[in-house]
Amino acid sequence: MSTLPHQANGVKKVTPATEEKANTKIETVKVEAKSINLETTAEKRIKNAENFSQICKKHNFLKEKSDELNAYVIGRDGIKETIKIKNAEQVSFEISNTTIIGKILELCQSELFEMVDKSEKEVLDFIV
Fold it and tell me: In this predicted model, what pLDDT tens digit does every residue of 55-75 receive, in sequence order?
C-alpha cells in the first residue's frame, strides 16, 4: 500500500526533490578522502632498487633455464637419453625410459613456464 496521496483522477502526487519537504528526509553522508602517503626517503628508494635488482636476477635466471630446457626438448632424439637424480648424500637414481623422460620434461616445462610468467609479472608490477 502506498503512502503517497492520491489526486481525484487516481494519479499519485509525488513531491519534487527540489522542495524543502523532500530534502529533509535525505541523510547526508560525509565521505572523507584519505590521501595516500607517497613520502619516501633515499634509503627506501635504494632498498627498493636493490630488491628490484634481485627480482630481475631471478627472472633472468629462470628465463635462461627455460631457454636451455626448450633447446634440449627441441634437440632430443628419443634414444640414448638418461635422467639422473642425485640427493645431497650422493644417492642417485637414473631413468632411461624415453616415455617417462618425455613426461618429466613436460612437467618441467610447465612448471618453469609458470615460474617465468610469475617472475615477469613481479618485474612489471614492482614500483621502485
Answer: 999 999 999 999 999 999 998
